[in-house]
Specification:
The chain is of the alpha/beta class and 545 residues long. Helices cover 46% and strands 17% of the residues. Among the domains are: 91 residues, OB fold (Dihydrolipoamide Acetyltransferase, E2P) (Beta Barrel); 162 residues, Rossmann fold; 39 residues; 39 residues. The relative contact order is 0.04. It is flat.
């Protein structure tokens, strides 16, 4: 081991200025310097071989160690592995936790947290450093636990998990009570004994670990499992939950400070009573639960009332109701008797009303008979005034004959007139058709003339590169009409009109005359390109075009 980790001495090259030695001297030197002989005879190891030897020696010598230190440089890789360092005041040790073990750690690693890790020492030849691969972690010391507890409490409180508006009312008398605790401890016996003394109820126990690795996950799964039960299923859903554990140290109760347990208690739809530890013990589940009990026995007392007290209270209320009913009935009886003295005899009232009813019936019968006699006499008088139906039919026949004669006379006069008017309208319709045909022909002739007019228009000539020169009065000018100083209006194919003044050194109005623009183009016309001054070599037409 000492030879393996000893620092190799570098070989020194012989000096070039040193005199050469004979073979005998070399052999003598080798015999006198055993270190040189050992270095010469030892086989040369490769870098991989020496690294493998170191790695094998480390893993054999430090196969299982526990190391205490402060976490720093925590990194969570995308693959799920955790890389960090453990340090104290004198040294730093690299730490690796593979993904499979990272999810099983009982402590959530954080920078600055002092922990104790368990694992094996190994080396990483790629960087020539050594490291520890851990599979478990625990908090070192109660002070570090309290610090972690306070930080976790602040984090969960900021999310609103401890808010009072989230807490539910515990049912007064639940039918079924669910208990999450260890099935072998004294806690479940205390709860059952207290429930049987106060008010026996049906109890469902979900056995869990209450301490050590995996305890927090089991408690959280139990709470979620009770909430997932069907209220109408074979296993009834509890009306109240009790999460209980006996007293212990902060480390023993740490499972009930885990975030997974606190979130399960806060998200429980069933009202939950936490009874973890003794009265002086406080865990984070106490803040997330709907009610905190100082002990498991007190939790059973909060869950159900005392049956004997309820029976006594019910009996007391029954006696009070019976006494109150008797008193109320006596008061009402006295009031009825007092009111009865002020009322007349009901029999006398009924007799008077009966006599009045008989009188009204008799009067109604007499009135009905007189009314019928009167209506019968009026009907006889009216029937005598009406004519006989045969007479009415005869009069109507005469009237119809008179109307028929009048209709025949009128129809002989009106029908010829209406026939004449219809013939007149028909001839007018034929005349309107001929008029429309003439209009269509005239329209076609007008269109042909428009095409001819457009063909002979000077606009088409302008489009071939020519222009029109007009005077100030708008008349077209020729070369004989232009003199020096004549104002000109030149129109081009794009409807642009340029105002110019004729001028030059030739004869007035001659072909060698020049044009000098005076004004800008009119509004809406494009600006004409600038023209160069005419030279003596210009054509006879000059710059007029």
């Amino acid at each position: 081991m000492n030879d393996l980790f000893s620092t190799p001495r570098p070989k020194t090259a012989p000096s070039k200025a040193a005199p050469s030695k004979t073979a005998g001297s070399k052999s003598a030197d080798k015999g006198n310097n055993p270190a040189d002989a050992r270095g010469t005879n030892a086989p040369a190891l490769s870098v991989s071989e020496i690294s493998s030897s170191i790695k094998r020696e480390l893993e054999t010598r430090f196969d299982r160690v526990r190391v205490r230190g402060e976490i720093s440089g925590l990194k969570r890789a995308a693959s799920g592995h955790i890389y960090m360092s453990l340090k104290d005041e004198n040294a730093v040790l690299s730490v690796i936790c593979w993904r499979g073990q990272a999810s099983k750690l009982s402590v959530d690693p954080q920078d600055g947290l002092e922990v104790i890790v368990t694992g094996r020492i190994t080396s990483y030849p790629g960087r020539s450093n050594y490291q520890i691969v851990i599979d478990s972690m625990e908090v070192a010391g109660e002070g570090a636990l309290l610090k972690l507890l306070q930080e976790r409490k602040k984090k969960l409180a900021s999310e609103g998990l401890f808010a009072d508006e989230r807490k539910r009312v515990i049912p007064f008398l639940p039918e079924v009570i669910g208990v999450v605790t260890s099935p072998t401890g004294a806690v479940i016996r205390d709860i059952m004994h207290r429930l049987s003394d106060r008010f026996p109820r049906r109890v469902l126990v979900w056995p869990v670990l209450v301490q050590g690795d995996g305890a927090a996950e089991q408690v959280a799964n139990a709470i979620d499992g009770f909430n997932a039960l069907d209220p109408n299923g074979d296993i009834p859903r509890p009306d109240t939950l009790i999460v209980a554990r006996g007293g212990g140290s902060l480390e023993d109760l740490w499972a009930f400070n885990e975030e997974v347990v606190v979130r399960a208690a806060a998200n429980s739809k069933i009202p939950l009573i936490s009874a973890v530890g003794h009265e002086t013990d406080t865990t984070l589940i106490d803040f997330a639960s709907d009610k905190r009990a100082p002990t498991p026995t007190a939790a059973a007392e909060m869950a159900v009332p005392v049956r004997a007290e309820l029976i006594g209270e019910v009996q007391n209320i029954g006696r009070r109701i019976y006494a109150g009913a008797n008193r109320l009935m006596g008061e009402r009886r006295m009031q009825v008797e007092a009111l009865a003295r002020g009322l007349p005899d009901p029999r006398r009232l009924i007799e008077e009303k009966t006599q009045r009813l008989d009188d009204r019936v008799e009067r109604m019968r007499n009135a009905m008979k007189g009314f019928l006699r009167h209506q019968t006499s009026e009907l006889s008088e009216l029937s005598a005034r009406l004519p006989h139906p045969k007479q009415q039919i005869l009069l109507a026949s005469h009237h119809l004959s008179a109307l028929s004669d009048r209709f025949d006379g009128v129809s002989e006069q009106i029908i010829p007139v209406r026939q004449f008017e219809m013939e007149k309208l028909d001839s007018g319709r034929r005349m309107s058709s001929a008029t429309a045909l003439r209009l269509e022909r005239a329209k076609n002739e007008l269109t042909s003339l428009e095409r001819v007019l457009e063909g002979v228009s000077y606009k088409n000539v302008l489009k071939r590169g020519f222009s029109v020169v007009r005077g100030a009065d708008g008349n077209v000018l020729t070369t004989t009409d232009i003199s020096d100083g004549t104002k000109l209006n030149i129109e081009f194919a794009d409807n642009a009109v340029i105002e110019a003044v004729a001028g030059g050194d030739g004869e007035t109005g001659g072909p060698s005359g020049s044009m000098t623009p005076k004004t800008t183009p009119k509004s809406g016309a494009k600006k004409a390109p600038k023209t160069k001054k005419s030279d003596a070599s210009d054509t006879a037409q000059g710059s007029l075009l």
